[in-house]
Amino acid sequence: MGKIKLLITAILALLAMQHLQASATFKIRFYATNWGMNQSWDSYCEQVKKAGYDGLEVWVPGSKEEQKQMFDAFRKYNLAYAFLSGGGGATFEQYYDSYVKNVEMAVQLKPDFVNCHTGKDYFTFEQNKKLIEAADVISKKYNIPVMHETHRGRFSFAAHITRQFLEQIPQLQLTLDISHWCNVHESLLSDQTETVAMALARTGHIHARIGQPQAPQVNDPAAPEWKSTVDQHLTWWDEVVRLRKEAGKNQLTITTEFGPSGYLPTLPYTQQPVADQWSVNVYMLNLLKSRYQQ
């Protein structure tokens, strides 16, 4: 009996040590968005690097010339990269063909991961499921993670709908942009905690934008009137970090994705944005780096 107790104690000590080692080496990699970028790739990547980002998450440029400019800038400033992808078309068949083509093109460019805008909110469950499964096949073929963003207009536009996919597709991994759900459900989701917990457990990437019940983006997360809303988002993200560490994962990726004018509230008549998009995203970067000691 004594030997068994010693063995159990040794095993528990080993597991605890492994957990501590995993926590010690856990890394969060931060990506900038190029949404709203109005300068050259070289100039913007220099700005991104100086701000302290690890890389960028972007849509693949349509022209080979611009792709070259982008990759040249990534290499010059030693920036990692991830791609967004999606589909289009007047029918599901057209959308499916476009989606598969675009996702495969994106993974062939060897990003850290691909974040998909998958499906439509009006496609059937089976149609959206077919898209998710097609992306999974491509992901496994190229050994590149493919995740699916929680986003208005997509299969994942609402928490309770996304739950159905999570329950029936075990391999489904999310890009958590929970700001959309706050807007769709006109709440901070206090009445859907079980569903949110399920989504957090299946999150592989985060879009760190702060949503609120009347919009997918607050005007300025540093403003004191948004403190409780920001705190709720931080609580959700804290749980993702905790779960990733607990699962023995060695990293998490986060994109600060506050959008430009149009998404960012503007004044009437002048269309002057009420905050500076770049400054807001850098504020979020520094807030999260400090919080997670990165």
TrEMBL record:
GO terms for molecular function: endonuclease activity. It holds the Pfam family AP_endonuc_2. SUPFAM superfamilies: Xylose isomerase-like. Residues 46-208 form the Xylose isomerase-like TIM barrel domain. Residues 1-24 form the signal peptide. The keyword Ligase does not apply. Keywords: Endonuclease, Hydrolase, Nuclease, Signal. Gene3D superfamilies: Divalent-metal-dependent TIM barrel enzymes. The keyword Plastid does not apply. It comes from Sphingobacterium spiritivorum ATCC 33861. This is AP endonuclease, family 2.
